[in-house]
Design goal:
The structure holds 2 protein chains of 2 kinds. Chain A is α+β, with helices and mostly antiparallel strands. The longest helix of chain A is centred in the N-terminal third of the chain and has 22 residues. The chains are: A alpha+beta, B alpha/beta.
């Protein structure tokens, strides 16, 4: 499948940038003419991934979060990358309600929300190696067709 | 984010305007907790009709406040829930502990009925 457009966004791991990141990715995704619900889904998933990078990847210390987004016909692919501490047990981290930081009143629902709001999610991580979260969403009328393939 | 707190007998009404994420969660938490220092407050209703965005950071704040008021024998309710936020509440199982109302009036009437 041919890439229609691609963008890369790099920013400091500051919580102020959570809103900046989700709004920017949503504005980029608008080129595919998504529905309001699809835009809301994308914003939510990006917000979760970026928050994870800031809180868990960098543990609130300075680092760079990189987002790459690619547009295809009826599909958006988003990668959120940090070079932080990485995840020891990805399966455990993906469990609903599991959080390594209950003292911060984290709900442990980040990955579950990403999985629910997007069509595909892939997490690549290792201790000391950072984390890469890849999120895919099929949009509009292409949706059912592509999922069947 | 703008947070307005008002009291209706033993119930705190929290009106949230803006976007609730990890960045704004602390502000909301501090604001609500300062009012919760009043031991007469038993219940909280979060009015979300002006909330334009929420991610799972909001779930953490709501469950945290639920833990406080449930120790006082009170309840937490939400109203003005948009479809995006409803989806997050459903997937996180929030409705097992927090009730949703269609309007603030209905929520307050129901809570008054329960606690009087």
């Amino acid at each position: 499948m041919d890439v229609i457009n691609e963008m890369r966004l790099e920013f400091l791991s500051k919580s102020q940038n959570e809103a900046f990141a989700r709004v920017t990715v949503a504005a980029f995704a608008a080129q595919l003419d998504p529905t309001l619900e699809e835009i809301a889904d994308i914003k939510t998933a990006v917000s979760e991934a970026v928050t994870n990078a800031i809180i868990h990847g960098y543990e609130n210390s300075p680092g760079i979060v990189t987002i790459t987004a690619r547009l295809y016909a009826g599909k958006i692919e988003i990668e959120v990358l940090d070079n932080g501490k990485g995840i020891e047990d990805i399966e455990k981290a993906r469990q609903p309600l599991y959080t390594s930081k209950p003292e911060l009143e984290r709900s442990g629902m980040g990955f579950t929300v990403m999985e629910t709001f997007m069509d595909e999610m892939e997490v690549v991580s290792a201790p000391g190696q950072g984390t890469r979260v890849k999120l895919i969403k099929y949009l509009g009328s292409f949706n059912e067709e592509l999922r069947r393939e | 984010m703008q947070v307005r707190c008002s009291k209706d007998r033993h119930t705190l009404v929290v009106d949230i305007d803006g976007e609730l994420d990890h960045h704004t969660a602390d502000f909301l938490r501090d604001k609500v907790d300062s009012v919760l220092e009043d031991p007469n407050i038993k219940n909280i209703v979060f009015d979300l009709k002006k909330l334009k965005f929420m991610d799972s950071s909001g779930i953490g704040v709501l469950i945290g406040r639920y833990k406080v008021v449930s120790q006082r024998g009170g309840v937490v309710a939400v109203t003005g829930v948009t479809p995006q936020i409803n989806k997050i509440f459903e997937v996180s199982g929030l409705y097992k502990i927090i009730k949703k109302y269609n309007s603030l009036d209905t929520a307050l009437r129901d809570i008054r009925g329960c606690s009087s």
